[in-house]
């Protein structure tokens, strides 16, 4: 899988019409630098050889150097990684904080006003453009109320309060969108689980509805839910890229977009590869979690 | 064939009944019709030419003359929102068209022939699926260069795997049905089998997915234009207007609020309609709803 | 004779659906005494399962609507508070369900699913609960019960799982056991084992057993009394030997005729033609009228027969009179 991804990422750059190094250097063209970059990139070799070299490098953490700055790509990526991981993790937390209680409640009280409200919320959340919501947040909280910073990032270690204040709006923006999609999945998997025979057995034992839901329904409902969440993370990571742009959050997504702007293809290549790898890693974790939740599956 | 036609007609009737019964779905349909009108007749409907500059009325708040206000160059935001519908509709329709054709073909071939063909094709789809959609679209546009046509191609490529997967799943479920095997044993050609027996069964899930994909295509096109990778100025597009409005959030909130609201309402309409379609066309989902609504333990 | 444990009187259950009101159970009366086995027989959709769910208060309301009376040792259960019903469920009245494949929770160990009832009703915890659970598994005939406590349902066969279900039901020494087609999903040999198991446990404990089935054949060796349900009504009620010897309702006669007889070769299995009535559109007269081979037109179509005596402890709801036919034919 990862191999396929790497081929695709590799090909992306090599399908660029024209000479990517020349394009990247633009007006600052310097024949000497060009020569050096060109040799380093190995553009004179046949494609499969180039791919082999690039892959060998990638495995050992060498993704080449930036066509624009000449700095190693890996360094730039690692510099940006913590910000993206922070935002992604915080967004997942927000999404789950919304989706789990709302989805469970609306399933348990299916057909109630709360269920209806949850349905409306998730429909709105799925349809709202995340970048627009981010701008609306900036408009309300940064410009009008002036209680949160409009953009930027602070390190958790340097200033935890500033870190949280900067993190809040981007994380909520992504969290609401992902959370509203997940609310649907929680609701439908809880509903499905509620209709199962073992729930009737549990009720016939005299267990209270609360125990029936928490002990018997939830654990079973989580199994399909976890799978969906894994897939959903692709959307979430996509949201991270755009929201990083809206809030000038210095993560991988912003780096990728800057690289597109600068036509810095090695950096773009590295960023895309890293984000796709992250996504695959998350799915691996999800698979492990799945096995842990479901005793019927053993690896 | 007669039986199939009747059941299909019944399904469409069921869909219409859902639309009529469900006021939300009806509202969605109305919005989509308005959107189509705006996309076709935009210039005639707009109160001002969308690219007319008016330096004397820059950054005007909403008023009778300019219900949605004006932008930093004095252009009427309402007119630009109306005309901007065209880009959204065009990109979404063509992009989804590309992924529909590519995905359904891939899924049909993979599912029908199985074996190595299936493995190779679906592996390829899996690889495409391993990227966040917007990231893959960004990467494709980085290679092809920004622009309307390239945005269509990028979104089309990104949406292909989902159609391929859905189609393949339906084909697999139909392939071993008795009537298909019977037809094969009678010597029907592959093309005939696919067209006559497999394709009609694939239709319902694909129609539902098309509606959902249209919603996401509009979102993605807006996102790409917002990032400066889609439509290039001066052509009005909602995403691009949002990008420009973002720089003036402090002075002119209307520049960002109205184009975003247009995207939101459009996407919402497609999603609501997609849900109604699913209720009407997807029997599995339908039975789930009926089970919830009626009957009990028996 | 001892007092009845459980008395059901004029029980009615309706479901409000989008297509109208479905009358699933239409005035059912029966009772069960300690040590007695009552079999309720009927096709699927006859209302036999729903009526037992209603006893435990497990019919969701809405969309369901339950009326009439269900008394356990004199206490009224219809309309009782949820807390009272919960105290009674699994403790006084326990239930074994049809499909052991789906009736056990796949993600909890067998032991946990037994101990949670012990915890709830008897206050047993930790080792004490575990020991008791192992005893129960032993009693239902599961080998090496200690080890089995930590198994998950998917690691057991269908028969074993049904034994676990029975162990769960027996955990708190219930006075009434309701067995809802407990053998339908099992192989024939396993079926016999389960029947035997429940029979033995009943003799040991003096429970009242309500056995729900669609198969009159299962009933023969195990029930004291049989109720035949059709369209949400009891159409015939008799001691088991009498029912087999002289069934009075055309429907019961049809069911008995449909039973395969061991060693007897038949070219085709006899069945009753037609479908049970749609509970949301019940005919005004006898519910069995459309399928009845003995129907007398005018009266059967317009008037619904009620249960009337047809012999000692034998009641039937039909206008058809087997005796009179013989008489008039003579």
Write the layout of secondary structure elements.
The complex is a heterotrimer of chains A (299), B (298) and C (330).
Chain A: H1 2-14, H2 20-25, H3 31-41, H4 47-59, H5 73-108, H6 113-127, H7 130-144, H8 160-194, H9 197-204, H10 209-246, H11 252-262, H12 265-293
Helix pairs in contact in A: 1-4, 1-12, 5-6, 5-8, 5-10, 5-12, 6-8, 7-8, 7-10, 8-10, 9-10, 10-11, 10-12, 11-12
Chain B: H1 2-21, H2 23-45, H3 77-113, H4 115-129, H5 133-144, H6 148-175, H7 178-185, H8 190-226, H9 238-246, H10 253-281, H11 283-293
Helix pairs in contact in B: 1-2, 1-10, 2-3, 2-10, 3-4, 3-6, 3-8, 3-10, 4-6, 5-6, 6-8, 7-8, 8-9, 8-10, 9-10, 10-11
Chain C: E1 6-17, E2 20-32, E3 37-41, H1 48-55, E4 64-72, E5 75-76, H2 82-88, E6 93-96, H3 100-103, H4 110-122, H5 126-139, H6 145-148, H7 158-170, E7 176-180, H8 188-205, E8 208-213, H9 216-219, E9 225-230, E10 233-239, H10 240-245, H11 250-258, H12 297-302, E11 308-311, E12 314-316, H13 322-329
Helix pairs in contact in C: 4-5, 5-7, 7-8
Question: What features would you describe in this structure?
Answer:
The complex is a heterotrimer of chains A (299), B (298) and C (330). Chain A is an all-alpha fold and 299 residues long. Chain A has helices at residues 2-14, 20-25, 31-41, 47-59, 73-108, 113-127, 130-144, 160-194, 197-204, 209-246, 252-262, 265-293. In chain A, 45% of the residues are buried. The model of chain B is unreliable at 1-6 and 285-298 (pLDDT under 50). Chain B contains eleven helices and no strands. By secondary structure, chain C is an alpha/beta fold. Chain C has helices at residues 48-55, 82-88, 100-103, 110-122, 126-139, 145-148, 158-170, 188-205, 216-219, 240-245, 250-258, 297-302, 322-329, and strands at residues 6-17, 20-32, 37-41, 64-72, 75-76, 93-96, 176-180, 208-213, 225-230, 233-239, 308-311, 314-316. In chain C, the strands form two sheets. An eight-stranded mixed sheet of chain C has the order 6-7-8-3-9-10-12-11, sandwiched between helices. In chain C, strand 4 and strand 5 (75-76) form a beta hairpin. Chains A and B meet through helix 1, helix 6, helix 7, helix 10 and helix 11 of A and helix 4, helix 5, helix 8, helix 9 and helix 10 of B.
């Amino acid at each position: 899988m990862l191999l396929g991804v790497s081929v695709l990422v590799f090909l992306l750059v090599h399908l660029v019409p024209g000479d990517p190094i020349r394009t990247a250097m633009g007006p600052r063209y310097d024949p000497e630098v060009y020569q050096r970059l060109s040799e380093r990139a190995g553009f004179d070799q046949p494609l499969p050889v180039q791919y082999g070299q690039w892959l060998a490098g990638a495995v050992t953490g060498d993704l080449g150097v930036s066509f624009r700055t000449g700095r190693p790509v890996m360094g730039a990526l690692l510099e940006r990684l913590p910000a993206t991981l922070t935002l992604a993790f915080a967004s997942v937390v927000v999404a789950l904080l919304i989706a789990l209680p709302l989805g469970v409640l609306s399933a348990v009280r299916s057909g109630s006003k709360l269920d209806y409200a949850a349905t409306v919320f998730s429909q709105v959340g799925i349809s709202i453009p995340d970048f627009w919501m981010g701008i609306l947040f900036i408009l309300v909280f940064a410009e009008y109320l002036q209680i949160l910073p409009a953009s930027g990032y602070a390190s958790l270690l340097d200033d935890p309060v500033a870190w949280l204040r900067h993190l809040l709006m981007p994380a909520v923006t992504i969290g609401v969108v992902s959370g509203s999609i997940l609310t649907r999945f929680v609701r439908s998997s809880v509903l499905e689980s509620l209709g199962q025979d073992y729930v009737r057995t549990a009720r016939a034992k005299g267990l209270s509805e609360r125990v029936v839901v928490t002990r018997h329904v939830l654990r079973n409902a989580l199994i399909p839910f976890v799978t969906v969440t894994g897939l959903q993370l692709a959307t979430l990571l996509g949201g991270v890229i755009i929201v990083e742009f809206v809030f000038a959050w210095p993560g991988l997504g912003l780096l990728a977009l800057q690289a597109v702007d600068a036509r810095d293809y090695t950096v773009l290549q590295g960023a895309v590869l890293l984000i796709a790898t992250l996504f695959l890693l998350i799915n691996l974790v999800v698979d492990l979690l799945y096995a842990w939740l479901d005793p019927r599956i053993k690896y | 064939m007669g039986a199939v036609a009747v059941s299909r007609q019944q399904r469409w009737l069921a869909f219409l009944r859902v639309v009529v019964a469900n006021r939300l779905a009806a509202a969605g349909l109305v919005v989509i019709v308005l959107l189509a009108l705006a996309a076709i007749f935009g210039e005639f409907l707009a109160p001002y030419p969308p690219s007319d500059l008016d330096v004397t009325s820059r950054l005007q708040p909403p008023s009778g003359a300019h219900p949605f206000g004006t932008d930093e160059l004095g252009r009427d935001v309402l007119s630009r929102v109306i005309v901007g519908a065209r880009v959204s509709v065009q990109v979404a329709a063509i992009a989804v068209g590309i992924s529909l054709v590519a995905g359904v073909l891939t899924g049909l071939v993979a599912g029908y022939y199985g074996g190595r063909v299936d493995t190779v094709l679906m592996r390829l789809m899996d690889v495409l699926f391993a990227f966040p959609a917007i990231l893959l679209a960004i990467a494709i546009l980085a290679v092809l260069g920004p622009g309307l046509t390239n945005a269509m191609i990028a979104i089309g490529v990104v949406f292909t795997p989902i159609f391929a997967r859905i189609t393949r799943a339906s084909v697999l479920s139909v392939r071993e049905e008795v009537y298909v095997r019977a037809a094969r044993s009678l010597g029907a050609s592959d093309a005939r089998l696919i067209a006559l027996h497999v394709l009609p069964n694939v239709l319902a899930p694909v129609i539902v997915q098309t509606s959902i994909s249209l919603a996401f295509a509009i979102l993605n096109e807006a996102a790409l234009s917002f990032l400066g990778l889609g439509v290039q100025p001066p052509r009005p597009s909602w995403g691009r207007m949002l990008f420009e409005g973002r720089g003036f959030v402090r002075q002119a909130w209307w520049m960002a609020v109205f184009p975003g609201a247009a995207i939101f309402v459009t996407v919402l309409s497609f999603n609501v309609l997609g849900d109604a379609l699913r209720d009407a066309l997807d029997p599995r989902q339908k039975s789930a709803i009926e089970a919830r609504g009626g009957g009990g333990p028996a | 004779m001892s007092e009845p444990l459980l008395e059901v009187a004029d029980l009615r259950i309706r479901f409000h659906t989008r297509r109208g009101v479905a009358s699933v159970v239409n005035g059912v009366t029966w009772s069960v005494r300690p040590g007695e086995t009552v079999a309720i027989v009927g096709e699927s959709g006859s209302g036999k399962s729903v009526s037992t769910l209603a006893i435990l208060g497990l019919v969701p309301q809405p969309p369901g609507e339950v009326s009439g009376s269900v008394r356990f040792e004199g206490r009224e259960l219809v309309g009782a508070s949820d807390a009272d019903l919960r105290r009674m469920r699994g403790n006084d009245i326990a239930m074994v369900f049809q499909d052991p494949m789906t009736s056990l929770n796949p993600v909890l160990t067998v032991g946990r699913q037994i101990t949670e009832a012990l915890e709830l009703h008897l206050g047993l915890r930790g080792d004490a609960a575990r020991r008791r659970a192992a005893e129960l598994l032993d009693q239902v005939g599961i080998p090496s019960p200690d080890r089995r406590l930590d198994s998950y349902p998917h690691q057991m066969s269908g028969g074993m799982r049904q034994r676990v279900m029975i162990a769960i039901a027996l955990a708190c020494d219930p006075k009434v056991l309701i067995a809802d087609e407990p053998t339908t999903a099992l192989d024939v040999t396993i079926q016999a084992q389960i029947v035997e198991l429940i029979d033995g446990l009943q003799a040991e404990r003096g429970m009242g057993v309500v056995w729900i089935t669609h198969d009159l054949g299962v009933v023969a060796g195990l029930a004291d009394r049989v109720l035949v349900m059709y369209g949400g009504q009891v159409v015939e009620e008799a001691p088991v030997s009498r029912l087999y010897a002289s069934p009075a309702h055309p429907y019961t006669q049809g069911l008995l005729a449909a039973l395969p007889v061991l060693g007897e070769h038949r070219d085709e299995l006899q069945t009753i033609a037609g479908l049970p009535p749609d509970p949301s559109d019940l005919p005004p007269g006898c519910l069995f009228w459309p399928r009845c081979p003995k129907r007398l037109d005018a009266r059967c179509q317009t008037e619904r027969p009620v249960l009337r005596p047809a012999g000692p402890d034998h009641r039937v709801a039909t206008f058809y009179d087997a005796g009179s036919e013989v008489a008039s034919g003579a």
